[in-house]
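[09:14] KT: can someone run the structure on this one? pasting the chain below
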Amino acid sequence: MKTTIEQVKPFFEACQEGIYIADHNLVSLYVNKAYQRLTEMSPTELIGKKTTQLVEEGIISESVCKLVLESRSEKSILQKFKSGKLLLVTGTPLFDDQQQLKYIVVTARDVTELNRLKNELAETKKRSEMYLRELSNLKSQSIRNVEIIAESPEMKELLATACRIAQVDSPVLILGESGVGKEILAKFIHYSSPRQNKPLIKINCGAIPPQLLESELFGYEPGAFTDARRNGKPGMFELANQGTIFLDEIGELPLELQVKLLRVLQDFEVTRIGGTKPIRLNIRVITATNKPLDEMVKTQSFREDLYYRINVVPLHIPPLRKRKEDIFPLVRQTLEKLNKRYGKNKRFSLRALEQLENYQWPGNVRELQNIIERLFVMIDETVIDVQHLPFKQTQSTQQGTLKEQLEMVEKQIILTALEKHHTMRKAAQALGIDPSTLTRKCQKLKINWHILNN
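[09:31] RB: done, C-alpha cells below
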C-alpha cells in the first residue's frame, strides 16, 4: 500500500490542488504539499490519525471521509480547520476488483480567497448598481447638449452626487481650477433636475463691470438712472424665476453687492433698482469659483454669512491632471466633433496620446480642447504625432530609478509597435512575445490600448 502511494507521489506533489488520502478504516495515509499549504498544517498532525479523531480533537470540523464510507459515493462539504482556513473538500471512494473500499482520495480547494473575492464582487456590483441608478436619469431625461466625460472614478462619483442633489433645491457651490468644467456641471445639475424645462440663466460676476453688475442682477425701473431704458429692465434673478441662476466667478463679486445678494438669497425676493415692490422668486441657485473662498473670508474680502449661504452643497471638480482616465475620452470626443464638422479623418498617434496623458494641463479641459483644435487646424498630416505637440516630453527617461527608466523605454517600444501594427496580436508577434504577455505589460505600464481603440 505504501509502495503504491510512493509510486504516484510525484504526480500528487505536482498537483496544485490539495490531496489527502485515507484508507478504508479512515486512517490518514498521505497529504501532498499543496494540502499542507492550504490547511496550514503539517503531516505529523494528520498522518496516522483517523479522521474521526481529527474531528474530536478539533482539527477539522467534519469528516468527509466518514460520509464517503457511509454512502460509498462521492461527497463534498465545506471543511474548516483549526488554522481558520475554510476549504471545499471532495471525497472520492476507490474500490478494488471485488468492489471493496480501499482508499478515499480527498481533493481540497481554498474557498477563503473565493469568499473574499465573492464579497468584493458583491460590493462592486452594489456600487455599480448605485451608480447606474443615480445616472439612469441622465439617459432618460433631455440633457440638452450637456456632455460630461466621466471615465475616472472621481468624476463618476461626482456625477452620481450631482444627480442626487439635482432633485432638491439646496444651493450648490462648484469649486475647481479654471477650465475644469464648472459651467458644464452647473448645466448638468439644472437639466437633471425637475426645473429642466425652466430657464437656466448664467452670469459671470467677473466679466461685467461692477457699476453695471447690480442692474444686471436685480434689474431696474424706468428712470432709475441716466441712460436707463424707458420701460425698465428685468434682472437676471427675475429671468431665472422658476428655473436656475448660475453665478460664475462668485469670488469676483464686490463686497457691496455681496450684501444685496445675501438678502436676495435669504428672502428669495428681489427689488429692482429704483423700485419699491419686492418680486417673489422661486429659483435654484448654483455658484462657482476658482478662488479659495474660505481664505477670502479670513481676509474679509468675502462675506462669511454669504459664504455659508451658498456653500450648502460644495462640489469640487478635480483638475484634469488628477483624473487622467478622462484625457483620452476627451481627446476622442473633441477630435470626433472636429472631424465631423470639417469632413476630415484626423487622429493622434499613440505616442502623441501618451504625451497628452503625461502633460500636467494647467488650463485643464479648456486648454486640452483648445490645443486639439489648434493642432487640427494647423497640422496638414492625417496623423498628429509627438513632434506636432506644443509642449516638450514631460517624462524623461533620464529621470527616476533604473526600474522606472527601463519601464519608460519598454513603454515607448510597445507604443511604437502598437502604432505600427494596429492590433495586439500583430504587435506581440513583432515583439516576439505572446499576446497575453503584451496585454499584461500594457496593464502594468498603464497603456490604455482598449480605450484608444473604442
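[09:33] KT: thanks! The chain has 19 helices and 16 strands.
[09:34] RB: yep, looked fine to me
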